[in-house]
Design a protein that fits this description.
It contains 14 helices and no strands. Helix 4 packs antiparallel against helix 11 and helix 13 runs antiparallel to helix 14 (about 275-300). The chain has one domain (about 45-300): MetI-like (MetI-like fold). It is mostly helical. Helix content is about 70%, strand content about 0%. The chain has helices at about 10-45, 55, 65-75, 75-110, 115-120, 130-140, 145-155, 170-195, 200-205, 210-220, 225-240, 240-250, 260-270, 275-300.
Length: about 300
């Protein structure tokens, strides 16, 4: 009876084939739903597919270079939409991360009803965005909604218009988005805080350090890599705020909450300006890339590995 002895090379080949087999579904999905659309967007941004005619008449499609990109800077609505996206980011990112860190610090301590509080904070994260829109649309209705009725009973005669106000709609949406996304950030920060060496806190206790000193001199520096990662991801998420803006206000009142991603959607699927929308999408990608690179460059000053 003879036994085949597998060599190291044949085993590596077999492991490679198995790895390809398991990776194939992801790679195929990535190719179809990610890579091909990205390449198509880049190509479309340099042609004149700005009407339904081009879909049926391929002969009318021409290379126009940077014309679509130049038109963005002539379009005040597009420029204002980018500005609103950046303003939304300024509302969303700092508050989200500060509140998440504070809650993580509280919950990692021996807080009363800690499990129940953690569950309540996590519930909005798994809530359906349409249900969230209906809930807050009712609560924040300026004409008879429970929040404004409560404020009136406390003596505030002119409560905010919330989602219906020109100056309040965007910060209100940012606040609701923070409420919904808070759980994920908090859980990540809790994991980072729990990994900080207890010996550092014990040494600080021996020195008589206060809680505030331990947080600022030990906790924050030790979790700074996590803070950096969460800031980057929350900045990217803040620019991808189509769903919550669409369901809450659809860009209203007027254009007060018409952010860049909503403007891109409307240009493509309402006005059929596919190439122009593709150019706007690529410009948004470049803005996010530049912001990320600036953050990556600046992290050397405050992130401690």
């Amino acid at each position: 009876m003879q036994f085949k002895i597998k060599t190291k090379g044949s085993m590596e080949k077999q492991e490679g084939r198995i790895a390809i087999f398991f990776l194939a579904p992801f790679m195929i999905g990535y190719l179809i739903f990610e890579l091909i659309p990205i390449i198509s967007t880049v190509v479309m941004s340099f042609i004149n597919l700005n009407s339904l005619r081009g879909i049926t008449d391929f002969a009318s499609i021409k290379f126009v270079g940077f014309e679509n990109y130049i038109n963005i800077f002539k379009d005040s609505d597009a420029i204002m939409a980018y500005g609103r996206s950046m303003l939304y980011t300024l509302y969303y990112v700092p508050l989200l991360n500060i509140i998440a860190i504070v809650l993580a610090l509280l919950i990692t301590r021996q807080l009363y009803l800690r499990t129940a509080i953690r569950t309540m904070i996590f519930m909005p994260y798994v809530a359906n965005i349409v249900a969230v829109a209906i809930l807050f649309g009712t609560l924040l209705n300026p004409f008879g909604g429970p929040i404004n009725e409560l404020l009136k009973s406390l003596g505030i005669n002119n409560p905010p218009m919330w989602l219906f106000g020109k100056n309040t709609s965007l910060p209100t949406i940012a606040g609701i988005s923070i409420w919904k996304d808070l759980a994920f950030q908090m859980v990540v920060y809790m994991a980072a805080i729990n990994n900080v060496s207890k010996e550092l806190y014990e040494s600080a206790d021996v020195e008589g350090a206060s809680i505030f000193t331990k947080i600022t001199k030990i906790t924050i520096p030790m979790i700074s890599p996590t803070i950096f990662a969460m800031v980057i991801t929350s900045i990217i998420n803040s620019f991808q705020n189509y769903a919550i803006v669409k369901t809450m206000t659809d860009g209203g009142p007027g254009n007060a909450s018409r952010v860049a991603v909503l403007n891109i959607y409307q240009q493509a699927f309402e006005y059929n300006k596919f190439s122009y929308a593709s150019a706007q999408a690529m410009l948004l990608f470049l803005i996010i890339l530049v912001v990320t690179l600036i953050q990556w460059k600046g992290q050397k000053r405050w992130v401690h590995y």
